[in-house]
Amino acid sequence: MNDMISLQGKTFVVMGVANFRSIAWGIAQSLHSAGANLIFTYANERLEKGVRELADSLENPNNLLVQCDVTSDEDLAKCFASIKEQVGTIHGVAHCIAFANKEDLKGDFVDTSRDGYLLSQNISAYSLVGVAREAKPLMVEGGSIVTLTYLGGERVMQNYNLMGVSKAALEASVRYLANDLGKYNIRVNSISAGPIRTLSAKGVGDFNTILKEIEEKAPLRRNVTQEEVGDSALFLFSDLARGITGENIHVDSGYHIMG
Ligand code: NDP
Ligand code: N5H
């Protein structure tokens, strides 16, 4: 049990657990350690079993699972309607979802196709807007929405390409959503995580080189973990962060301050 932050009696929706390496799973573990009730969403049936096994591995598992492909307005509406029916009030959402076609994560950004661009914006940026809209009526006691971004949304990073543009849209969406939802005491923030080896990062050429550069250049001289991102999300979900909204917190060993 986390002895600094208690979220006992509060309920959070965690979107984007693919496996035990997922950042969403790090966030789920931190929330669980603070006594929160969890609801997991998964994109399609293919992943249900794995997510169910992970959810059940948490001590005291009374966690719910709901299907939600964020490209579908119908899924989004049904997902939050089902959550409302099962638990009533929620206190936050962790949005840990992004996608771009592999061919758009290498070469020149200028070659990005219209379809590839729209797909990535749809899954990686618009989905936060749809999620916030559907989650808002369930956060009647106020709430906190946390999404994940990467430094490539602020600066040009080799090969991040289309995903950098999607993250820039996501980060701007955080600010506009924060302004809309502040009057309901709902806060919206992002965490800009340093590189972490997850399923999404699989197949990224030179990932080792990227990790090594952080070890050499970042102020903390090491990489970050899912647990560290999870604990920062826990802070943003808690009352300790009640004055913070529209913010992007870098959990990246300080790498972003370096020239
Ligand atoms: P994971 O591969 O573990 O998670 C990505 C998740 O996105 C998967 O659970 C995937 O679900 C989900 N997803 C993709 N398409 C959809 C969809 N249409 N509907 C619902 N869910 C979907 O990787 P990470 O944990 O690394 O990624 C989580 C977030 O963290 C992303 O936003 C990523 O950009 C961000 N991030 C990651 C960093 C890293 O180095 N790993 C660094 C900074 C930010 P499914 O498998 O079911 O398709
Ligand atoms: C500068 C870099 C390295 C190059 C770019 C990597 C971008 C990664 C983000 C996206 C989300 C990865 C992605 O969409 C992969 C898919 O094309 C293929 N993978 C899948 O479909 C798997 C099965 C599913 C689970 O993945 C998803 N996303 O659904 C950035 C790195 C140093 C840091 C990084 C990895 C950032 C990030 O945003 O994830």
From TrEMBL:
Claim: tRNA processing is one of the keywords in the record: no
E.C. code: 1.3.1.9
Pathway where it operates: Lipid metabolism
UniProt keyword Ribonucleoprotein, yes or no: no
Keyword vocabulary terms for this entry: Fatty acid biosynthesis, Fatty acid metabolism, Lipid biosynthesis, Lipid metabolism, NAD, Oxidoreductase
Catalysed reactions listed for this entry: a 2,3-saturated acyl-[ACP] + NAD(+) = a (2E)-enoyl-[ACP] + NADH + H(+)
Gene3D superfamilies: Enoyl acyl carrier protein reductase, NAD(P)-binding Rossmann-like Domain
Family label: Belongs to the short-chain dehydrogenases/reductases (SDR) family. FabI subfamily.
NCBIfam families: PRK08594.1 (NF006369)
Name of the featured protein: Enoyl-[acyl-carrier-protein] reductase [NADH]
